[in-house]
Specification:
The protein has 15 helices and 15 strands. With 397 residues, the protein is an alpha/beta fold. The protein folds into two domains: 167 residues, Phosphoglycerate kinase, N-terminal domain (Rossmann fold); 202 residues, Phosphoglycerate kinase, N-terminal domain (Rossmann fold, 3-Layer(aba) Sandwich). The chain has a six-stranded parallel β-sheet, sandwiched between helices. Strand 14, helix 13 and strand 15 form a beta-alpha-beta unit. The longest helix is centred in the middle third of the chain and has 15 residues. The two termini are 13 Å apart. The mean pLDDT is 95.
Amino acid sequence: MNYSKKTIKDIDVSGKRILLRCDFNVPFDKQTGEISDNNRITAALPTIKYLLENGAAVIACSHMGRPKGVWQRELSLAPVGKRLSELLGQPVKMASDIIGDSAAEIAKNLKCGEIMLLENLRFHIEETKNDPEFSKALANYADIYVSDAFGCVHRAHASTEGVSKFLPAVSGFLLSKELETLGAALEHPAKPLVAILGGSKVGDKIGVIKNLINLADTIIIGGGMAYTFVKALGYNIGNSLLDEEHLELAGALIKEAREKGVVFLLPVDTAIGDRFEIGCEKKTVKTHEIPDGWMGMDIGERSIAMFSKYIKNAGTVIWNGPMGVFEFPDFADGTRAVAEAIAACEGITIIGGGDSAAAVDQFGLAEKMTHVSTGGGASLEFLEGKNLPGVSCLLDK
């Protein structure tokens, strides 16, 4: 996939109407109903401000949740419009629909330097089906399409790929940074390249591991998925997570990595619990000696020291997936220690979105990383080397 795409700086936006795809799928506090995390909104501000300050009229759009074509008040983007207005310091004209009378009327009268927000795109089932007529209706609002929702570019939806068939399509600053940073890490990384992969299932990371075996110098495996690899080597893992479907493949991946000279690290000690809940009994054992009735919940101190040694000397670090059940305070040490080691690394450090991004944010380390990706699923597919439809459709530089 070509990562070198035109951005809003490569075109003249003055006097143009811009259909801007953002990722405003923000979390809400269930008790107060208020937006609990502004990050996805603030991440879009540099692109929005640039467009407005350079004389464009902005028609912003996004999805929220998974309404599957059903209008749901709790998934309205109205609160996002209000918060965006506060952050921009200017009105955001909120449409009550997507391709109906309200949106059409506001868009028709939108002046340069003004911004409007369409309602939740997924209130129309045609959005996720990438319906050509729906794509065309969205495109009719604008002269140019700008994609700035990296977390959505792995989906071929109407607002991420379909509209590019009707409008010239370029990237915003947020998407451009993702492409440049992740693209450079895969195409010409500073060496040695250390890839750290965690999470629960091997199946979720097979494509990433296969791709990185050809690129990385060291692959570190942690989290629940590590126990499938340990089992593949013939050891007992007690009641730890096991992705039995991919057990044979796990063994084959270890063999392939070793044949290609890639250092493939698994935890040597493990913090285990007698049940999966906060407050369970905890102890640390050698990873290949997990007793029956116990489950691996985190990497141990010896594993932390071993992993940290490789991280310290890395030219590039890519991290996707926690080292354990970091939501449980007793089993957060491994994920925290790896995050701290990455933060202290003098090389390029990339956090691949999702739980890893949540972890570095929780530990107050996000600002110490070179790049924290805004897309969990998208960054994962990027690391797999997959074609991302919402990127491929953009104009090449």
